[in-house]
Amino acid sequence: MLSVAWTMLAGDRAKCLGIVLSLAFTTLLITQQGAMLQSILSSTTSFVDSIGGIDMWVTDPRSAYIDDIKAMTDTQVNRVRGVPGVAWAVPLYKGSIRARLPDGSSQNSQFIGLDDATLIGGPGDMVAGTLADLRVADGILVDVDAAGGRLAYPLSGGGTRPLAPGDTLELNDHHARVMGIYRGRKNFQSQPVIYTTYERAKAFVPSERKLLSYVLVKLKPGADSAAVSRDIARLTGLKGRTTREFSEESLRWFIANTGVLMNFGLSTVIAFVIGGGIAGMTFHNFMLDNQRHFAVLRAMGAGSGTLIAMVALQAAGVTLIGYGIGIGAIALFAFAMAGSEITLTLTWSMIGASAAVVVLVGGVSGSFGLRRVLTLDPAVVFK
Superkingdom of this entry's organism (predicted)? Predict the structure, then answer.
């Protein structure tokens, strides 16, 4: 009987194709919106998440999220070092600077200053050069995407080439020499990210009394992070948060103060309603066209359980095929967009969530047809 059910479905090619394509469209759009949203949300905290080897970020108590920088004085680093439970603490600068190319064009860039002695907080995936090359006079590191894109080196005959070690840039009227290229995570602003040392960053940026953005802290073995945070607040007046706490607080601020979640959520709901509506109506029309066949089967003694199994097989079949087409299409799209400004973060949880939504759409669509089959009176059809 199950083979008969599948033959009935495959025999009506137009409606079968309509159901499959509507479910594929639902899968494609829901997964694309979710993957893009996840990529955007992860980029908002990428700077915090990418720095390993530390336990705590110390900021001005008024700083609500990662980019809400309230500059502090350099003396705060020594004050944090004196807090019980702190193994070591180093300064970190984060700001913006205008990078000028030899042809006169310029790009706004993020500017990161690392502790001169330890270079803690620097990129770990170096494509060319080493992190230690930052100690060379006027040395900087540039991310690989910017080196081949916005900061690509202009050629005299026209065109550009990727920025390479040995090239020079002008940062706020200061000569800077590219010493290395690294591969890093994209930031929310999609700006080039340039690394240098802390003291050099202070010399490059406009002179201000306060330039310290964060203090990166490593705790002593066995030290309680909550207790250290309280001591930092009590002894220095600053706010200490673990990496996870700082990342989660930044993410919550972004979600609460921007409309990105609502916009993507609305698009997902629209995709669910449209795709599910088309699939449900098409499946319902399929049942109407084939009700005479189900009536014959019921008249021949097929019970409700058999009919339910037949309809469930039809609904599950088109759902799996449609989901496979949709998830394959979004995977190809993500592969094609790799390295571009459009980024998609496909995770197993995202794939599983989209599968659950599509199964729900397929189940709702099948229930329309099942209700029609179970309430079918064979005598009415034969008349």
Answer: Bacteria
Distance between CA atoms of residues 202 and 91, nearest Å: 12
Q: Which tokens belong to 160?
A: 């550009």
Whether the CB-CB separation of 325 and 51 falls below 8 Å is answered with no
Of the candidates 260, 245, 338, 339, the one whose C-alpha atom is nearest the C-alpha of residue 49 is 245
Please state at what angle helix 13-44 crosses helix 260-289, rounded to 10 degrees.
170
Question: What are the residues facing 376 on neighbouring strands?
Answer: none
Predicted pLDDT at 319: 81
Mean pLDDT, the chain, rounded, equals 81
CA count, 13 A, side-chain hemisphere, 32: 19
User: Which parts of the chain are beta strand (E)?
Assistant: 56-59, 86-100, 106-114, 126-128, 139-143, 153-154, 160-161, 168-171, 174-182, 193-197, 214-219, 239-242
- Residue 284 · residue 370 · CB < 8 Å: no
- The confidence band for 34, taking pLDDT boundaries of 50, 70 and 90, is confident
Rounded distance between C-alpha atoms, residue 272 and residue 275, angstroms: 5
For residue 122, CA distances in Å to 140, 183, 184, 320 come to: 11, 11, 10, 45
- 284-299 pLDDT tens trace: 777 766 666 666 666 6
**pTM beyond 0.85, yes or no:** no
Give, as one character, the DSSP assignment of residue 340: S
Phi and psi for 27 in degrees, rounded to 5?
-60, -45
From the list 218, 191, 281, the residue with the least C-alpha distance to 55 is 218
**Residue indicated by tokens 């001005």:** 60
